[in-house]
Specification:
The protein is α/β, with parallel strands linked by helices. Helices cover about 60% and strands about 10% of the residues. Helix 4 runs parallel beside helix 5 (about 90-100). It binds adenosine monophosphate (AMP). Adenosine monophosphate (AMP) binds near residues 32, 35, 58, 59 and 135.
């Protein structure tokens, strides 16, 4: 099963993607997690990545497209995947669609997490206390939300229109278990999946 999660930072999509990937036995492909792992390498690239990520800006499309290509071609994805945090720009979206086309891959379902940005700010501040992520403070949140609105929101709208039959909007202000139940219900109802 091939799934994409869209949603602003702090919408809880990472938590949901992790739970759902476990439930469906597919790969949780979080580009944020992959990049955060790279920060430990201590090389020139990791220093550059740290600067970009801790300011709330987006890492270059070239780096992300390469990460995604490597992952999607790997054995880890043979059962399916949840893309969480990618595509985030029009260029990434074009890259992904042509990758799908040339590899004969079809999307099964898209989830679009919607949430009030004030709630996002509160959640991120709480998370920064628990996880000590360097990109989780109020100054940086504003940049991350701005980037989401400018770059990623248009991509999510484009996908929701292009794949309207398999796109579902999720009210991300609900409790974790309620959202998880909703996702599973949508998966069961999805026209594409019941065809398979
Ligand atoms: P996330 O955990 O998805 O919020 O990602 C954390 C940070 O990693 C983002 O603020 C970006 O700096 C970077 N990042 C993750 N995914 C992407 C992407 N698809 N394109 C560009 N930058 C990304």
């Amino acid at each position: 099963m091939k799934i994409i999660f869209f949603g602003p930072p702090g919408s809880g999509k990472g938590t949901q993607a992790k739970l759902l990937a476990k439930e469906l036995n597919i790969l949780h492909l979080s580009t944020g997690d992959i990049l955060r792992e790279k920060l430990n390498d201590g090389d020139t690239l990791s220093i550059k990545l740290k600067q970009i990520m801790s300011s709330g800006n987006l890492v270059s499309d070239e780096i992300l497209n390469q990460i995604i290509t490597d992952k999607l071609m790997s054995e880890e994805c043979s059962n399916g995947f949840i893309l969480d945090g990618y595509p985030r720009t029009i260029s990434q979206s074009n890259f992904l669609l042509s990758f799908f086309k040339s590899n004969n891959l079809n999307l099964d379902i898209i989830f679009n997490f919607k949430i009030d940005f004030k709630l996002v700010e509160e959640r991120i501040i709480n998370r920064s206390k628990q996880e000590q992520r360097s990109d989780d403070n109020l100054d940086v949140i504003k940049t991350r939300i701005e980037k989401y609105i400018e770059e990623t929101y248009p991509v999510s709208e484009f996908f929701s229109e292009k794949y309207s039959q398999i796109s579902f909007t999720i009210d991300a202000s609900q409790e974790v278990h309620k959202i998880q139940k909703e996702l599973m219900n949508f998966i069961k109802k999805s026209p594409k999946i019941s065809e398979n």
